[in-house]
Design a protein that fits this description.
Largest sheet: 4 strands, mixed
Strand content: 25-35%
Structural class: alpha+beta
Number of helices: 3
Distance between the termini: 11 Å
Shape: globular
Order of helices and strands: EHEHEEH
Number of strands: 4
Length: 83
């Protein structure tokens, strides 16, 4: 199962959009989602404050800010092809 980390913060509409896109792909591309609120960690807030949402997929692919469902699908398809 693919590990996905969503770095987010409360009230972030782009973060909600990314979470919905992930949920829509869950049946086709099963993944384990960990949601991390960057505002709970000063180092994460400093690193990602202007970039959220940030998705880290399988520790290899990082998607930033405006995450489009088509691009997200492309990453999952690439991972599936890699085996």
């Amino acid at each position: 199962m693919t590990e996905v980390v969503l770095y987010t913060r409360p009230g972030c509409h782009l973060c909600e959009h990314a979470a919905a896109a992930l949920q829509a792909l869950e049946a086709e591309f099963p993944h384990a989602l960990l949601t991390v609120d960057i505002d709970t960690d000063p180092a994460l807030r400093k690193k990602y404050t202007d970039l959220v949402p940030v998705l880290l997929i399988a520790r290899r692919y990082r998607l930033l800010t405006q995450i489009e469902p088509a691009h997200l699908r492309e990453v999952f398809e690439r991972l599936a092809a890699e085996g």
